[in-house]
Structure formats: structure tokens, C-alpha cells
Amino acid sequence: MVDDGLWIGSSVTLSDLMDKMRSLIKSQPAHEVSACTALLNQLKYFAGNQIRNTASVGGNIVTGSPISDSCPLYMACGATFVLEEEGKPQRSVLAEDFFLGYRSALLHCTGLLVCAFSKS
Ligand SMILES: Cc1cc2nc3c(=O)[nH]c(=O)nc-3n(C[C@H](O)[C@H](O)[C@H](O)COP(=O)(O)OP(=O)(O)OC[C@H]3O[C@@H](n4cnc5c(N)ncnc54)[C@H](O)[C@@H]3O)c2cc1C
User: Percent of the chain having pLDDT more than 90?
Assistant: First the structure.
């Protein structure tokens, strides 16, 4: 947790993310973690434990699948993705601006680093 939201490393598995969301929902005021509640509820329907134990947050986002369970949530929650590309300064983009089309995303070279949820 940071002052204005939550930072999630791109290599975090979906299972670890769900564990973290569960503990945040228990410990934080409901209005501050409503995005966590929505994401946790959605991820329950994401494949099964075997897939969730290996699939990473970044891998799922960069895949840009049109049937992704999580990407619409990141957009709806106003999440920000932090991008790092060779030879360019690190930059942040809203999730809704990251997806350009079918399996196409705003990432040309290396690394989606983290995504962040704002408390608001
Ligand atoms: C049996 C099965 C069931 C599934 N069910 C669902 C489902 O119910 N809902 C759903 O939404 N999806 C589902 N999927 C899709 C699956 O969840 C995604 O393929 C998975 O999330 C990809 O994550 P990964 O960490 O394995 O990514 P990888 O396969 O390792 O990576 C995917 C792509 O992203 C790139 N990449 C990975 N991390 C980064 C990073 N940090 N920065 C830049 N690029 C990166 C990789 O180079 C690669 O091109 C299912 C898949 C399987 C096999």
C-alpha cells in the first residue's frame, strides 16, 4: 500500500494477488478497497488454482486477450500501468489507454512494470 493506492508488481501471481486483496479487504475501510473487492470477486472465476498459481499480473495484462477477466476491471477501476521501454523514460498510462485493439497494447519493447490502483 502507498498513500494514494496500491502498487502491484507485474510478476505477482494471481493467487498471491488474491491473498493480498483478501487481507487488505479485512484490514482497510471498505470504501478505500472497493477496487480490491471487485477484482477479487472477478478473479474467483479466472480459470482454476493451477493457472492462477502461475499466471502473473503483467503477463495477463500484456496478453491483452479480449476475453480477459481482469483487464476490464483494471480499466473500470482507473488503474495506471507503469511502462518501461528501452531508451525512453519510464511513463504511466491509464489502463483504458493501454489496450489498442485485439491482443494489441501500448508496449513496444520491454517491460510492463507495475499497475497501480488509486484509492479514489
Ligand atoms: C487453461 C487456461 C485457462 C485460462 N483461463 C483464463 C480465464 O479464465 N480468464 C482469463 O482472463 N485468462 C485465462 N487464461 C489466460 C491466462 O491467464 C494468461 O495466458 C496468463 O494470465 C498469462 O500470464 P503469464 O504470466 O503466464 O504470461 P506469459 O505467458 O508469461 O506472458 C504473456 C505475454 O506477456 C509478456 N509479458 C509477461 N510479463 C511481462 C511484463 N512484466 N512486461 C512486459 N511483457 C510481459 C510475455 O513476454 C508474453 O508475450 C487461461 C489460460 C489457460 C492456459
Answer: 38
